[in-house]
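Hi, here's the filled form for the chain we discussed.

Project: internal
Contact: R.S.
Residues: 252
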Amino acid sequence: MAPPVVFILGAGPNVGTSIASKFAAEGWKVAAASRSPKDEIKKIAHHVIAADFSESEKIGSLFAEVEAKLGTPNVVIYNAYSATFSPDGSNPFSISVAEYAKDIAVNTTSVYAAASAALAGFRKLPEVEPKVFIYTGNMQNSLIVPEVLSLGAGKNATAYLMETACTAYGAKYQFYYADERLPDGRPVMAALSGEAHAKYYFELATKKKQGPWDATFVKGVGYTKFDAERDREVTPAGMLIENVKKATSAPS
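And the returned structure, exactly as it came back:
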């Protein structure tokens, strides 16, 4: 039997490359797409594509290329994102309409296109093979960070996409909004662990049944359910960064 195929959209350094390395080490065929593929991912992946994820109408052609080169993807991981910080932190509506539209295209519209293409492929795969779609989210589906309005709007919209997909297709195919957290439930911000993502994503990819679509996880622990007391909490980006610095510098 041919090895399964994983397609990573947004195969940049750290998370994307770590995921690719993990799946390749487990014997999977790896397809990777990024805006400017680096040498490291080219050494790991079996097929690499340069792609602009703001061009949502071209996402389907990426899947066609992967299928022609490696086969139909069993697992699709959407790890790309785009964020425009407001020039005036007290005014989240200070970014341009063009910047907002670009961020929404990368963070949501292209995810919709990728999920649609993934579903078309899943329907062609044998019943016994894995069929999983994972989106790299963050805590902004339950936390308001005014300085990055467009990123938060995209994460919220895509969380809804993943929950809806899970509800509609979860009996046959799996959909996840993956969100790494600190042990106390706070966001990790830029302190993302590529290793933790790789380990947890491979676990999700090889699950037999749909798990919680809102797949919050902690490095070294895996899936962790958090209470919703932080929901809709407004937290400035600077405060989040300071919280992460304190948490990651504290002795374990």
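Let me know if anything looks off before we file it.
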